[in-house]
Amino acid sequence: MFRVVLYGQWKWSRIVVILGSVAGFALPILSVQGATSDPQRAMKAGELLSVIRSWGVLYPVLAAAIGLLIAIATWTPDHRGRHVLALSLPLPRWRYVLLRFTAGLVLLVPTMLGVLAGALLASATATLPPGLETYPVALAIRFALALAVAYAVFFAISAGTTRTAGIILGLIGTVIVVQVVASTAGIELDLTSPVQAVVMNWPGPLAIFTGRWMLIDV
Amino acid sequence: MSNAVEIRELHYRAGKSFAIEDLDLSVPTGSIYGFLGPNGSGKTTTIRLILGLLRPRSGTIRVLGEPMPLRAPAVLGRVGFVPEQPHLDPTLTVCETLRFREAFYPTWDGDWAGRLLQTFDLDPHHPFGKLSKGQKGKVMMLLALAQRPDLLVLDEPTDGLDPVVRRDMLAALIDYVSQHGATVFISSHLVHELERMCDWIGVMDNGRLVSELPMERFKNGIKRLLVSAAPAETESAPFSVLARDRNGAATETWLVRGWEPGMSTWFDARDASLQSVIDLDLEDGFVELLRTFRTPHGKEVR
Q1: H-type helices in chain B, by residue range?
Q2: Identity of the residue in B73, B88, B99 whose CB atom sits nearest the CB atom of A85
Q3: A160, A203, B65, B293: least CB-packed within 10 angstroms?
Q4: In chain A, what are the domain boundaries?
Q5: ipTM value of the model?
Q6: Could you read off the pLDDT of B48-67 as tens digits, one per residue?
Q7: For testing the chain A interface, which of B55, B81, B85, B89 should be mutated: the one with the most A CBs within 10 Å?
Q8: Is the pLDDT of residue B220 over 80?
């Protein structure tokens, strides 16, 4: 049962999976090459760390993008068929959702492995100044977690109807409009900061995306 | 006689404009039940309620003896469903679609699926999304049949298909039913198609079941009568007068239900004259029934 669901999802997601894996593999290598390509700069630890940090922004962006695209691809066949197939299959709905979710998770693995392989290769080939070390496994684990979180969030949103998506977007839009109006009117009102603190700070669900994404660090 | 599908006092509302009200419906086990009704009458909604795809506001639905939607996973394993619109993954080939379906149904008959592929002249390596409408219909019918269901629920399965494809599909359906004694619940606009194959008829209009009868009673019971010197009073008639139209000063045309040959004496006793009795086919009966139901004084006929 799982095999056929996975195969179906692979057909919808394969381009994203392949591109994600290539991007995941290339990102650590490019970041280290960018930082160590200039022999003079490679010797300066501070500058090296600065370049690595600027490349580090791309890891959560990649995780969010791949998570989003795989989540959309996961539900696309069901949305196309207006969920009639899913609802008429002889299994509980929670089990069908679990099958879809797990199959999507499996399709994230190539991208996770791409980042791990790229990070290991980049670490093995980098020439580092004294005092600096590489953390390929830690970076890959963090990327894998971020990818899984992004996928889970977008999977839940994509599972809903257009109406649900409209309600979510409407709520976000309302908060932004109220904030803008309050700012314009000179009213002291801060709606976004508390929400941001709850969501983005530990143990918030999106805390994994914040902080330093460093393949090379002290 | 047990019922494969039994609906009692069902209420369902979709938005403000459409509701199914107080629906009672019984599909006898082993029957081929034709479900007729104009567009928007609630046929597809009723089918979705039967399959547990929608939840009713109140009332009970039992399918193959099990309550729905409570026991939907177990029941759906014994039900073959062909929806109105293609619902399958368009990227999968026909062969892959069959494999997908096989994984979910323990009663799947791979040999018969293979034979049906040949009978329907389907290319197993062709993506479902690139098949013609007729081929898609054949694939969906194949999937429903190859899982060896006890109940087939078909929502306008041949709508928009050419006569050759329709004939192939219905032949395979009849073949299966005759061999396995399965129950068929089929909705269609093609009244003549149902007339040939069904032994029960249910007519739906505006969210209500207008009539539910064995096919023979439905066809034979509705007649058009040409009456001279028609009596004003019809309460004592042994048949139901659904409608009466004046043709001129002397004659009226009556649409009646429950007519039997010996009933002409009722007119004689009232100094009226029955000039002719006109048989209606299923389509005429269906149209007249709906016309009567929709008139302000139209009454529900069961």
Answers
A1: 43-50, 72-76, 94-104, 110-119, 133-146, 163-180, 191-197, 215-221, 265-268, 282-294
A2: B88
A3: A203
A4: 2-160+209-217
A5: 0.78
A6: 999 999 999 999 999 999 99
A7: B89
A8: no
